[in-house]
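Whiteboard transcription, Tuesday session. T.W. wrote the structure tokens on the left side:
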């Protein structure tokens, strides 16, 4: 919990998952064993706009956490480590196993020692606590402002305050000065932090600096908050005014000191701002290359209104000062073009300048400059030496000698070196200081792994959060303008994809046109969402296309070709196998360009094996594809990855529903498929088991929905229809009926253009199924009538029987059981006439189920038992599960509870085996009813709890019905959702 959220079992680290999953784990851990409600989790993870199926998403995160935390737990067995409690969850974990809990125990002990005035014990306990302390939840920025996180930060500040007080009273103020200065720098308006710094300076006899702290803090409080100093600062100031105050127990050093990462235990003296701690110039042995000590100040101007990036700034503080176990003399900040690497590095460097009183060196290495190319190292080195006071005539000729002189000059000095926009590690290494007191920051568009391997601390800078992006925009606009159109600001943030450069461009445009309403600007950006014209500028540094192009031009040919094609993929992300299909190559061959794009920060591997980029980069890639690649190449690429998704979806669909009538093959469409085009990523394997099939559908669902839209727009009508058909069972099992209706409407239009009446009939039936689930029974009846007419015209008795089964299902949902029975009997006759045995088995069971609903329980058992025997001969486990459930229900209604329980247990086992979670939940509910009627309330409640757990995980409306059951209500016997 302290630092990045991490999990271990023994010495093996476990996957904690993506940021949202880590956030769920963190919130449950912070609750210290108390339940956390679903609403609190949703509000924390999605403070502005939760996704449509937020409950499903949350339950998926919990399911994955349970798998990690309890790998041996069976699906039926309730979770002991992460059980459901009401609508939320509770994490049961050993307090000894959590670093945060250990930190809090030390805080409690330190509080007791502080109250007892045992300063030695306070010093010992706070030292142990701060050794544990790191920025909490460092890799879960979405919880940075959460109240539970803020409480942790408050505790750490309290520990620091106790430690400072103990240090001053024990004569050890010099040992905490670096810590106190870092805290004061990080919290310039925090009066306790500033008062601690004043007291430290006073204890060390440095009154002038203590007065300076008071005065600068007073000015900030007045200017930014409109308040005067409070009691803490005033009391500290009053102590400064006492002329006879002495601190005999304090050893007073000759000059202030600070400990930096990598420095020795003996601290180097530093002077006040503008002074130099090095009294004699240092040159090469026996030489006098420097005439006088010079303090360079080469940093570019700071941002006028820097906002956000709080965690990243604190991380840089920690690396530079040795806090949070981040000690390193070098930080490397990487990220995509326009993400704000330079702005962050420059802003932090200005904040930290007082830590480096011997100067700040800066160089733009122009690693991705399309015009001049990277700056030569010897040019930068000569500039640094000149800034350090080396005369031109005494400048060494060779680079090796220059590096030697440069590093010798920095010995014993505290200098900050900022190397901006680096291309590679070789461009950086000669420019790095070797003195322990110096610190370097490197920014780059590519991962500098060569530097990280040798000890650099990496920071991958991502897009701004929604809150930060909004702050950036609103900080540039006057308040009335924002108040007039608050929703327009959110629309601008979305249009800019939270990319700082894009936000800055839009802010500048809005500022230059004060008469333009923000809503109108947002409308313009939406209208131009398919290109980047709105982000163009004569200055290439502020033109999105130009800035992106500097990264694109540095790519190898295969990576640049793949990047262009990725602009054709509808997103939101892409798997390795789909990328191989997109590129028309093998999985093994596509990994290298994917890795190159990731290193260049043009892609992010946000989950293992899945890649994404922000919306503006996708638009840029699509622009490049249209400009560079012929239409035939683009069409082939779209066809390849659409065919890939269909191939895998068909395999997955057959795994989760092996006896559903399969879709029709998707032959090559005229003018689209060309020689050598591969429909799938060669070397990849589609799902091979039911569980992996469900997981694959869950991972690709959003992509598949987008691909269906794109395939229809591209004229791939057969692919559109078959892909929509392959999604039918999954969407039905996951209760995504609105999505089901949408894709079936798209497929129906494509089937009309295709002229395939059989596909049209099938799609009418699929659309009717979605409408029926949504309670739109009139619409469902209309679609089914169309299907009946089409199948009758085709002479397709099996298709007609399938439609009769759908009509039976529709009637049952409207409680018209007699009509449902007639449709089921017609279906049975049609199946028997066609000799279609899987259909006969399903229809026999449907007749039995309808007779059970009508109270004819003996006949119900007869028909469903016939269905069961036929399903077993066909090895149709899903159909057999339905039949067991029907027989169980008929026996339950006849009062034969033990026979019913036996049947329901068979049904539950088979539903679980084939992965039909919803049907499993319904059979569990009926099993619970049976146990309840048989006088076994404990067993009944256990069955109902298991049913509720599944329904809640699916986000199904019946979960509320089951909660009522557990509270004493009774669920009626209706079979369907």
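and on the right, the sequence the group agreed on:
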């Amino acid at each position: 919990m302290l630092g990045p959220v991490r999990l271990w079992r023994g010495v093996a680290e476990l996957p904690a998952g993506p940021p949202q999953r880590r956030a769920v784990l963190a919130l449950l851990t912070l609750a210290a064993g108390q339940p956390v409600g679903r609403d609190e989790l949703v509000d924390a993870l999605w403070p502005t706009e939760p996704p449509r199926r937020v409950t499903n998403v949350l339950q998926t995160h919990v399911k994955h956490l349970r798998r990690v935390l309890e790998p041996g737990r069976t699906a039926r067995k309730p979770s002991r480590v992460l059980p459901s409690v009401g609508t939320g969850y509770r994490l049961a974990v050993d307090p000894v196993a959590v670093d945060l809990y250990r930190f809090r125990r030390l805080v409690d002990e330190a509080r007791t020692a502080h109250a007892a005035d045992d300063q030695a014990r306070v010093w010992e306990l706070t030292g142990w606590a701060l050794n544990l302390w790191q920025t909490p939840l460092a890799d879960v920025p979405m919880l940075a402002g959460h109240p539970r996180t803020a409480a942790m930060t408050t505790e750490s500040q309290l520990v620091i305050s106790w430690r400072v007080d103990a240090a001053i009273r024990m004569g050890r103020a010099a040992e905490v000065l670096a810590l106190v200065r870092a805290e004061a720098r990080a919290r310039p308006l925090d009066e306790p932090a500033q008062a601690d710094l004043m007291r430290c300076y006073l204890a060390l006899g440095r009154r002038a600096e203590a007065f300076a702290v008071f005065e600068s803090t007073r000015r900030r409080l007045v200017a930014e908050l409109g308040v005067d100093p409070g009691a803490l600062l005033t009391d500290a100031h009053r102590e400064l005014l006492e002329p006879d105050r002495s601190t005999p127990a304090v050893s007073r050093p000759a000059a202030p000191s600070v400990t930096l990462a990598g420095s020795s235990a003996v601290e180097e003296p530093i002077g006040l701002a503008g002074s130099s701690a090095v009294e004699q110039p240092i040159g090469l042995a026996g030489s006098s290359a420097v005439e006088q000590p010079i303090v360079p100040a080469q940093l570019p101007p700071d941002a006028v209104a820097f906002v956000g990036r709080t965690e990243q700034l604190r991380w840089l503080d920690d690396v530079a000062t040795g806090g949070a176990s981040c000690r390193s003399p070098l930080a490397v900040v990487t990220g995509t073009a326009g993400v704000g690497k330079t702005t962050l590095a420059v802003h932090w460097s200005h904040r930290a300048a007082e830590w480096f009183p011997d100067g700040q060196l800066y160089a733009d290495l122009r690693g991705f400059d399309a015009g001049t190319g990277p700056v030569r190292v010897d040019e930068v080195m000569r500039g640094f030496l000149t800034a350090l006071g080396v005369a031109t005539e005494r400048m060494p000729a060779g680079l090796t000698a220059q590096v030697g002189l440069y590093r010798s000059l920095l010995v014993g000095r505290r200098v900050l070196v900022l190397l901006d926009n680096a291309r590679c590690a070789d461009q950086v290494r000669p420019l790095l200081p070797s003195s322990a007191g110096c610190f370097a920051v490197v920014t780059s568009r590519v991962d500098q792994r060569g530097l990280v391997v040798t000890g650099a601390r990496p920071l991958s800078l991502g897009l701004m959060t929604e809150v930060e992006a909004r702050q950036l925009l609103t900080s540039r606009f006057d308040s009335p303008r924002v108040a007039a159109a608050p929703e327009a600001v959110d629309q601008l943030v979305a249009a800019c994809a939270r990319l700082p450069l894009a936000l800055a461009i839009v802010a500048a445009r809005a500022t230059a046109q004060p008469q333009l309403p923000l809503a109108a600007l947002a409308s313009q950006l939406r209208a131009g969402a398919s290109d980047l014209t709105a982000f163009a500028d004569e200055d290439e540094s502020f033109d999105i296309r130009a800035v992106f192009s500097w990264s694109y031009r540095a790519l190898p040919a295969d990576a640049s070709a793949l990047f262009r094609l990725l602009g054709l993929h509808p997103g939101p992300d892409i798997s390795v196998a789909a990328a191989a299909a997109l590129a028309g190559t093998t999985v093994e061959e596509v990994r290298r360009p994917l890795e190159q794009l990731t290193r260049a920060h043009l892609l992010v591997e946000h989950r293992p094996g899945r890649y994404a980029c922000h919306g503006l980069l996708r638009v840029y890639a699509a622009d490049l594809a249209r400009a560079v690649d012929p239409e035939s190449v683009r069409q082939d690429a779209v066809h390849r990855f659409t065919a890939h998704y269909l191939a895998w979806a068909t395999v997955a669909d057959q795994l989760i529903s092996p006896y559903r009538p399969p879709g029709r093959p998707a032959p090559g469409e005229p003018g689209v498929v060309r020689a050598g085009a591969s429909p799938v990523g060669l070397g990849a394997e589609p799902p091979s088991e039911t569980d992996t099939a469900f997981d694959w559908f869950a991972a690709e669902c959003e992509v598949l929905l987008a691909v269906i839209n794109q395939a229809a727009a591209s004229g791939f009508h057969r692919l559109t229809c078959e892909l929509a058909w392959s999604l039918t069972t999954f969407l039905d099992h996951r209760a995504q009926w609105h999505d089901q209706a949408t894709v079936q409407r798209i497929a129906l239009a494509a089937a009309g253009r295709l002229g395939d009446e059989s596909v049209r009939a099938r799609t009418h039936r699929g659309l009717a199924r979605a409408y029926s689930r949504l309670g739109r029974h009139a619409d469902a009846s209309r679609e089914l009538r169309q299907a009946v007419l089409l199948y009758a015209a085709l002479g397709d008795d099996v298709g007609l029987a399938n439609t009769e089964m759908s009509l039976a299902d529709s009637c049952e949902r409207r409680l018209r059981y007699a009509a449902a029975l007639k449709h089921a009997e017609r279906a049975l006759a049609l199946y028997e006439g066609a000799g279609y045995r899987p259909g006969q088995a399903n229809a026999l069971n449907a007749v039995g189920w309808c007779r059970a609903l009508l109270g004819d329980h003996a006949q119900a058992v007869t028909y469903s038992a016939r269905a069961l025997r036929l399903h077993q001969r066909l090895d149709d486990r899903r159909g057999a599960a339905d039949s067991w459930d029907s027989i169980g229900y008929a026996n339950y209604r006849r009062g034969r509870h033990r026979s019913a329980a036996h049947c329901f247990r068979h049904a539950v086992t088979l539903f679980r085996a084939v992965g039909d979670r919803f049907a499993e939940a319904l059979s569990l509910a009926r099993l619970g009813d049976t146990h309840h009627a048989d006088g076994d309330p404990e067993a009944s409640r256990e069955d109902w709890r298991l049913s509720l757990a599944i329904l809640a995980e699916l986000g199904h409306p019946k979960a509320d019905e089951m909660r009522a059951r557990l509270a004493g209500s009774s669920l009626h016997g209706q079979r369907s959702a």
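Someone added at the bottom: Residues 310-460 form a domain with the Rossmann fold fold (CATH 3.40.50.300).
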